[in-house]
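User: Here's a chain of 132 residues. Predict its fold as tokens.
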Amino acid sequence: MAENSRDKLVEEIGNMTVLELADLLKSLEEKFDISAVMPMAGAVGAGAAVAGGETAAKEEEKSEYKVTLQNMGSEKIKVIKALRKVIPNLELSKARQMAEEAPTVVVESVSKEEATKIKGELEAAGAKVELS
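Assistant: Prediction complete.
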């Protein structure tokens, strides 16, 4: 369609009433065997995004995570070793203190990948870890 023809069509549509637009839409649906209705899965997802409001948007935008040691479990020594492995230059006494004082923040403001890696290491040692 030529640019000029498209502009004319857009202008004509812009001058239509709501009822005329509804008739046009119905005609297009019948002619091309299409539907202008959003599929239900999309509608549910859109509704959830609206219902979730800022919470859903914040979860998608979140780029930094905090790793919290909730419980050291029964393998204290393994957890201390894991803490020293995931936190470079962590002294043994500080690692022991972190494990014993759980819940405690292990690291703040790390990427999702790094947080997941740290969580995996600590959980493999028997600790309970939370990402937030």
